[in-house]
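Letters spell out the chain; backbone shape is given numerically. Take this protein:
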Amino acid sequence: MAPKDTYKTILTPSEETLFKDRNSKFFGYAFPVTSEAEVKEHIEGLKKQHYQARHWCYAYVLGKEYEQYRANDDGEPSNSAGAPIYGQLQSYDVTNVLVVVVRYFGGTKLGVGGLINAYRTGAQNTLEASHIVEKTIDIPFKVQFEYPLLNKVMRLINDYKVTIINQHMEMNCVFTLAIRRKESKKVIKAFNEVYGITLLEDED
């Protein structure tokens, strides 16, 4: 199977959503995130905003390959909050997204089944209220060439719809480019076959 070359995410925070069950209130939020530090920041922000709430339960997925995830019950019974929120992130197939559901206790215990339903619904409503977009997984590469080859390089860039990330133009030019993963082998080969274009290894 060809490796996945797209992923779904959100670019802006969702609207606040609210789900109620037997006087308990569940406020839902989704945020675009790319690191655990950003996750922490959003949760701290919500704790200040909802300082009288009882629980701030969340789950997140990070990485274009969906490689990092975590679910947190924040004091609710095990797997009754974080796991159902994470389940919705999986259902909507999104990454680089944090979903937080903030609970105000209404005086009546909901039981584990009631909690699972409330946190799942809170997360679902929040992702419904989010603008989900599909993005491509792009492979970066660098090319070096003499200035007279610029037109030929630009033609290749336009023909293959290559993204220019960075360009350094002098007699000796260096371009940092990116191309969608499924096209990358073919496109890099096309650049490689032009006499005078050198593919550079990334330093990092």
The CA atoms of residues 13 and 79 lie 25 Å apart.
